[in-house]
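cron nightly-structures :: item 1 of 1
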Amino acid sequence: WSFTANISECCSCDIPCSCNFGRPERTCHGSRLIQIREGQFEGDSLAGINFVVTFYMGRWTRIYIDDALGGTEIVTLDRLMPVAFGGFARLAQVQVRVPLTVSETSDTFRFSVPESTVEMKLFPGLDGSPITITGLPSRSYHDYVQYESVVHTHRSGEADWSYSGTNGFKSEMRVSG
């Protein structure tokens, strides 16, 4: 199996998030959008599979699968989840199909599911260009571009949070097994 996905995330950490460097320092509440662009699992295509994982790092996750996915895609994702996203799958309190919306402009990115919303803006460098970070210790952080949260909210029976001005990023995930 192998796939390439776009990753977009906001969390409660300061910019840049120390967790992305392999050194979590404190509580990290996050919401991550995973948009699989291409790939296969046991011969089945993964292209077009989108889902959000909202998490309290190391404690729990809530997985929100795009309700636009078809039956075959859902079955394939169910088989892929424990293999490629084992940490998220093990901590999942819920895995549910929901409406997922995504929008983007030249310097903002937004995604939402009924319980979680993220809006982030590009965090500019000294000359106004994007800040990129290379060499991070994860296959999820290729082509990492720094963003800043504008809105990062979650409201469920498990947790209720609202952040702004905290870490955000977009990157590319490239994995195989």
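cron nightly-structures :: done
DSSP finds two helices and 13 strands in the chain.
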